């Protein structure tokens, strides 16, 4: 299976930007991924906030107003990515959309669109400091998700971890125990430290679970948006660091102006590698759950 992770550039707000311009941009980006042979394409977290550029400055410069405004575009968003998934015969992880759940509350929801017209989603489970501060700032509340899913991408089981979620081992392990072989990570980071944390989280989850991880990122600057103002990091595809796989765990990574990190994933070979593994963290995971070591105790000399 060939996968592609976007290093998606959010541009300075252009004159006349509207939903149709956004749709053309998605068709351009995803069309390129399909020409590169991708069956799965991953776009970044907070992709929906680019739609705020379609509204006046009083809206796009205010996060709460932006979240309220883009709800009117949720149905067109769903129709757009469903159509592109069908036309391109490709599974599309459409970054994330901040979905209203009522009473001024929103969930950071990542949709996956299938070529047959179906879709699934995963809500972000853990909130970052930025998202918690939004929640404290007034009536707008970004709330965490409360369910975890695994879904089929052709004959492969996949799961989504939205940005910060990839830094937590137990939910991803729960997905792995439900058969997950492919972890899809739409992300958005505005500092080098944040980009490093997500990258290290992706590498750790690949190592622990003997799975492939596909991470998309935002790039560029958008001073018109309080959420997408600065963006950093590289899109990448990761694998466990083991025999027959890259020593650094990196199958593909963008650099410079490259828009996609593209890699071919061999799931049969990945499963077979367990038998000759130098270490097999996925197989040895239960060892850390032994009663004698599940909790540490202080020893006073």
From TrEMBL:
Cross-referenced Gene3D superfamilies: Carbon-nitrogen hydrolase (3.60.110.10)
Annotated keywords: Hydrolase
Keyword Hydrolase (UniProt): yes
GO molecular function: hydrolase activity
Name of this protein: Carbon-nitrogen hydrolase family protein
Protein's organism: Marilutibacter chinensis
Chain ranges of the CN hydrolase domain: 1-272
One Pfam family recorded for the sequence: CN_hydrolase
